[in-house]
């Protein structure tokens, strides 16, 4: 054997023919056998020289045919043919390059020659003249057209080829991906063949890998032709990396087929195709972000360079140096070369594997320079890109049978913790909902820890809802709902609302059918949601306006203090905290554990009246039902559902009626659905009421029988009273009570209400007409009014005072029951708010500051029914602890004020003082001669059980032994932004600064309100959208989607004429406070049971009681100076009452309380006396024998008549809004002790007992 083939034989694959016997290849190359001489013997050792081997002559024998194997050389001389493979590539490359350069040279010479010839011909044409020039131009034009046609054909082919390789069409994309996939396949074949010798005999017809490689390269050749045709610059195309790869990989395959031998050669260059990996992924629309494209580019370049260099080392090390006759080779596998290149690039160089050949070492010298630079630059950048990849950048995988919701917007530790605390509360039935948070900022460590604690139900993904790709990641199309949280503490509420509206637009644009519940900060921004075509509140879309609800809660506290706390606790999920000690916290926390739930009523209730079902649920099922969802049976409103709050005894329960309950657990509410009269009628323990085996009716919403005539139907409230009802508070005096037709038509030509009939309305007034100076306010002697202290300036964000005024101007109050509202604050700020307030009556403004005691005394803050403290500057301060500084200072300032021991004589001239903006010309605004004004109250001025609250002989065990009356007795409610600041409102309480807001004394007493309590409405609305409708109906005074659409169009209430339809809208329930100190329920006030009071009020007056407002120290047996009260929600039946309790109740609208003052003024004193003798249902039953009454009814009436005659002679024009037989009080014109006035004030509902000077009322 020749020496050139040695050196690698011992290693099993060094040279092409080393390590075996010398054989002669038969001349029949295409046969699959070899012909050897019979005289050939075993060859000499591998160290014998080539010359000596060739000089040996063996005797010839017959030819022996043996199969070709991988280890057998292909000729007897051991000649290697690597140069043939390499020559094919070199000839192809340089030959093509020569042709391209030759073509360019010839083309250049042709262009130069044609250019010179063209100039000569052009000169001749000019010399021959224009006529001859025209004749000679004709054949030239024809020639140019032919050339243009040829160029057009070639251009079309070129464009077609360009389209095929540029992935602009589906076919092109498939072709590009297929070429890349086949290149990777060819590289894999190279990896397989690298375990074989560098050069070996291969039979094409039997070698499967060679056949596959041949097919691949034929395809590459065709693709090369397409690329060549599409190339604009053929020279640069010939020098491209992909072209060089094809030159050194495609021709050697055809040579392999021809020579029946294989050479690994430069097939490793196929690894350079990996550089195009990022382009392929972009064609497939997999890579979309710049970071991902850059990362794939770096990885593909690094890996392709690494694998290519390893292939070259594998070639030269296994072959040896040509000038050393290939004797210095070493056997290295391909993967050992890969390892060698990696330790070389990283400059580690262990030395266990190294290059022995000169070519290998020379290559390593240059590779270290480039590889080290690449390793030092690429690897850190790759690590940085991988490290900067979003940790939460995956996609949500939906779980079969489990819903998921998407929560986005303002995602912080506080907002998320509040949301999860309420959403995942244990009192809810099994919450089989997964919560997916989507935010564009990664969570901090605290928020990340919170997610990990709830990892079974919470997932977080980083992204934006404005990006459709991120919406697809969280599977928004299959989500049950999308909840958007707002930043309640932002400096610019309008900008925050705009951001949330854009989120809604993006989500609805991606999936119009998704249900969205979003928080809004400003009421006027809700109108923009109506501009979104796919926004549909009927399908569950809801906007929770924080300003609307916050100010609505505060407004309801002006009518019934403590109601804001009770309602806030009802829609918040609170765990029951048991306290053994007999303290006020024990009873308060028992009520806090109640929440609002909905459940369908059992068929056993069908046909019963609402009060009957309500009583049965309370007594037997231990459930409090306050409202139902009524489905109208009219054709025109068949699908319309309305929520009716305490509708009265005219409404009969339908099949499938949905009830609204107050209970401590969702499982308790199931009793209303499971109740069966046949099975559960004799059960006393409500826990035993469970599903029975009786057959139940199946309800169909479209087949509900009508139980209410259309004439009695109402919107958003109770049903109209009828003469056949149970005892009602009505008058029987025909002189004073007009009929129903008269009520509907007597003021039909005057606009007194808005177009919907839900609110009192007046013509727009200029702000100058309602501004009071300090002296004018002091002369007015305001009483029983509402003082609103507002902090704000010209740059403050508007808080929407309309939402505070609207509930106080609800039409279910009679005009004389409306409390006068006085705003004290910056006139610059109030001018900006006035556009939304100028249509409401009884509104005045005192320019000033709530921190000025002179301004506060001018508006008689000690005589007000409620003082509200608001601030529009709270979110402009970075320090959260200072956000409430103005409100806290104002609250402490008022509490520290001292007032004189006497009010003094109420001074008024014969005409009285008319505040600016009030019209005296109206008959209703003129003083009524000879009549005293009774204090207006929350629950109806004609109900003596409410007006006569304090009797001298029944004062409770409360001692107010103060020499001077202080501001601590003024009823106040303060708005807070930061919950922890509640500790500064009461200096005498013992609340821990870390105590939750709902556990603090100011919140429990209803003197503080924070917007954070409204966070629970998000989850409550998701689980039951009717809850939000019910809360909004209770606190806004009757706002409806139709009214919101109207305000969105005009930004103001529109006045409307009084029609039977609009007047019918007044007939709805309102919240009131019922005193137990006197009246028909006085016998229950002293040790009676709450359940007896509940049943009596419901049966007798259709009043639905739902809570108690009790003195904080009422449980003590010793007198106490504390006059603070706290809220008890839904006490049990056996709960013991005390005389000082105030009862929260839902009261029916009283048609007869608002009588025309014109008829009263025209009536004479004799008619008044006669009317006083007439029976009145408003009079208190069985009060004649009540103890501690100083005078009988007749003597008191006589005394009142005498006093009124005396005042008429003195031309003192007092007025009254109450009928004369409603037991007017003995009010004398002499100084009254404010000590006694404030002592009495503790037991009245929300009205003042001080008769103010006539305030001319601009009833429009």
TrEMBL record:
Residues 39-55, 1157-1182 have a biased composition (Low complexity). InterPro entries: Ion_trans_dom, K_chnl_BK_asu, K_chnl_Slo-like, NAD(P)-bd_dom_sf, RCK_N, Slowpoke-like_C. Pfam families: BK_channel_a, Ion_trans, Slo-like_RCK, Slowpoke_C. It catalyses: K(+)(in) = K(+)(out). GO terms for cellular component: monoatomic ion channel complex; postsynaptic membrane. It is a multi-pass membrane protein. The chain crosses the membrane at residues 81-103, 174-192, 212-230, 295-316, 331-350, 362-380. It is found in: Cell membrane. Residues 1-58, 706-731, 1157-1225 are annotated as: Disordered. GO terms for molecular function: large conductance calcium-activated potassium channel activity; metal ion binding. Residues 402-544, 783-927 form the RCK N-terminal domain. One of its GO terms (biological process) is vasodilation. Keywords: Calcium, Cell membrane, Ion channel, Ion transport, Lipoprotein, Magnesium, Membrane, Metal-binding, Palmitate, Phosphoprotein, Potassium, Potassium channel, Potassium transport, Transmembrane, Transmembrane helix, Transport, Voltage-gated channel. It comes from the Eukaryota. Residues 1-21 have a biased composition (Gly residues). Belongs to the potassium channel family. Calcium-activated (TC 1.A.1.3) subfamily. KCa1.1/KCNMA1 sub-subfamily. Homotetramer; which constitutes the calcium-activated potassium channel. Interacts with beta subunits KCNMB1, KCNMB2, KCNMB3 and KCNMB4. Interacts with gamma subunits LRRC26, LRRC38, LRRC52 and LRRC55. Beta and gamma subunits are accessory, and modulate its activity. Interacts with RAB11B. This is Calcium-activated potassium channel subunit alpha-1. It comes from Hipposideros armiger (Great Himalayan leaf-nosed bat).
